[in-house]
Amino acid sequence: MKRKILITEKLVLYFLLLGIGVAVIISIFYYYSSKDALLSRTFDQLTSLRIEKKNRIEKFFSERNNDVIFISRSTEIKELFGLINSDDSLYKSKTGFNPDKRGFLNLFFQNETSFEKVILVSGKHCVSFNTHGTDRFILNIDDAHKYNGLIEKIREKNDIVLEDLKTDGKETFLNVGAPVSPGDSTTDYLILQINIESINSIMYENNPHNGLGKSGESYLVGEDFLMRSTSRFHDNSVLNTSVKSDGVKNALDNKPGTAIIFDYRNIKVLSSFSKVNINGLNWVILAEIDFEEAMITIHEIRNNILGLTAILSLIIFIIAFLFSKRISRPIIELKDAAQNVGKGNYNTPISINRGDELGELADSFRLMSEQIRAKTEELEIEKMNRLQSMIDGQESERQRLSRELHDSMGQSLIALKLRIENLDDCHNCNETKFTGVKKLLDDTIDEARRISNNLMPAVLKEFGIETAIKNLCDDLKNQKQIEVMFDCQNVPANLPDIIKIYVFRISQEAFNNIIKHSGADEVSVSLYSENNYLYLSFEDNGTGFIEKDIYSSQLNKNGLINMKERVKLLGGEINIKSESGRGTIINIIIPLKTDLNEKN
After folding, report:
1. Which CATH superfamily is 457-599 part of?
2. pLDDT beyond 60 at 170
3. Which residues pair with residue 217 across a beta bridge?
4. Which of 108, 102, 18 is nearest to 71 (CA)?
């Protein structure tokens, strides 16, 4: 005979499964949410580091180019060339000689340690001297043939040429050279050797407290897939260690980004990569950290979740067992009601009206059913509201992206296609047309980048609303030659994300209106907070408009309605003052503490 399962046992099992199920679902959700957040934060840190290193290395080479120009134009260098050309005995004896120390060169190389060696090439004559050490400024005979390739490039460009890293077996360096008198038929060339340590001092870090931990590093790779800076893990890695990772390949293809890849050690890493913009060098930069080290925190969270789930399961089991003991034998009606509630039918009637424990249980069951039903309805309403908000937001961004792409990039691409078709029909196409096509393509690419940045600028997340609006002001000033004055004071650093995003979008709309409709050449922007309110204002000296026409079909297109709607969603107020021919003033007040803002 099959044994019947008692209600006590069933209640124990139900409560246990319910509790464990909820705990498991919450734990899984929390684990993967934390993992995604940690990966995103780590990628952001790597990208910030990579951008910082990229800017520093680009600045370094730009300064070295300026140094070469500065030194090659100096009087003392020209005097040295005159001395070399006038002393033929130097090349007959094949020995060096020690000139007087030069005041300018002495001071320059005392302050600048990036250059290791100076080479002076005049015709077939070539001498060099070290810039540091006990033998500094002692001229020595050098082999001009070693620099023939670089001299040829300088002669062709008649300008500065930067040569990629090379090694002589003992030292690793790169040369940068320039003609002493550009534009003339000169045979005098100045070459400066940059030591690798100057590059390593920028790229190499071995400090576990710098945000890269024990396995993070940033390094440079050339187009031959060989390292151009020192590895944290491999000795003598420059021009020896091959790096053919997906990050390097994408960066060389001019596809910057972030990804989880396998590095040159065949170890799984988080990588941020991009190309370095240095004339004459096709290098890429990568910032990486081992995947396992980045996941240490997540592994700890996972272990804590497992332990907490086990403890919670034990507590649920004990509570369910003790509670079940107080229940009398199964009642069909209560059992059926419990099964119906488990299926989602919270309106199951219960006809038990007794004054004992079973009656109290029935009353509690009715109350529980009603609460579950109410909570379920609230959750369903909230879910629908969030879904609607998400869909509306996505649709709005898609529409805006579609308009941007159609109105800007689409027209540029059509123009580019027509230009190319014209070139196909031309048998003797001149260089000017090709230059025009190239210029149009470059403009199209810049426009694509601008559109991407408008969708969600990285600077807003990384540096806050003040920097983001300042960048908008700078773009307006640089691209449209509009004088912009920006004043920002007392803006809280911990503004809710929704306020930052909405204020940024409002600013974008205001600047778009100024560009498209106002004809202004001066704009004043103010942003400050006071007494838990955020104040934002825009003032221009443009053509203005009649205030009663704000809702006309023409002005509906210029974004004022979008600005008013965003301000309204934040619980704020917007005041627009304008007269035809007297410019426009927009004042916005946004409360920093509202239900929406605190919720977000």
Report:
1. Histidine kinase-like ATPase, C-terminal domain (3.30.565.10)
2. yes
3. 288
4. 108
Amino acid letter, residue 80:
L
pTM higher than 0.70, yes or no? no
For 171, residues 6+ apart whose C-beta sits below 8 A from its C-beta are 116, 195, 196
Beta bridge partners of 586: 538, 576
Q: Which amino acid appears at position 377 of this protein?
A: E
Domain chopping of the chain, boundaries:
73-199, 345-455, 457-599
Three-class SS of residue 421?
helix
CA angle 251, 196, 139 (to 5 degrees): 140
Distance CA 284, CA 261 (A): 16
Task: Pick the more confident residue, 593 or 424.
Answer: 593
Tell me how far apart the alpha carbons of residues 49 and 258 are, in angstroms, rounded to a whole number: 12
Q: How far is CA 260 from CA 255, 431, 550, in A?
A: 15, 43, 50
pLDDT tens readout for residues 320-367:
777 766 554 546 666 677 677 777 776 776 766 666 666 777 777 777
Closest by alpha carbon to 220, among 232, 208, 206? 232
**Mean pLDDT in the chain?**
79
Tokens at residue 221, please? 């790779």
Q: Give Cβ neighbours of residue 132 (< 8 Å, ≥ 6 apart).
A: 109, 113, 116
Which has more pLDDT, 65 or 342?
A: 65
- Joined tokens for residue 153: 């490039």
Q: Residue 583: which of 551, 538, 539 has the closest Cα? A: 539
| Structure tokens, 202 | 């920028």
pLDDT of residue 544: 83
Q: Please name the amino acid found at residue 282.
A: N
The CATH T-level fold of domain 73-199 is Beta-Lactamase (3.30.450)
State the angle between helix axes of 411-424 and 431-455 in degrees (0 to 180), rounded to the nearest 10. Answer: 160
Q: Which pLDDT band holds residue 586 (cuts at 50, 70, 90)?
A: very high
Distance, C-alpha 464 to centroid of its chain: 13
| Alpha carbon distance 453, 449 (integer Å) | 6
| pLDDT tens-digit readout, 257-310 | 999 999 999 999 999 999 999 988 999 999 999 999 888 888 888 888 888 888
Beta strands 522-530; 483-489: pairing state? parallel
Q: Closest by alpha carbon to 117, among 195, 20, 31?
A: 195
Q: Per-residue b/e over 244-275, b at no fewer than 16 CB within 10 Å?
A: ebebbebbbeeebebeebebbeeeebbbbbbb
Cβ–Cβ under 8 Å, residues 596 and 570: yes
Residue 104: pLDDT above 90?
no
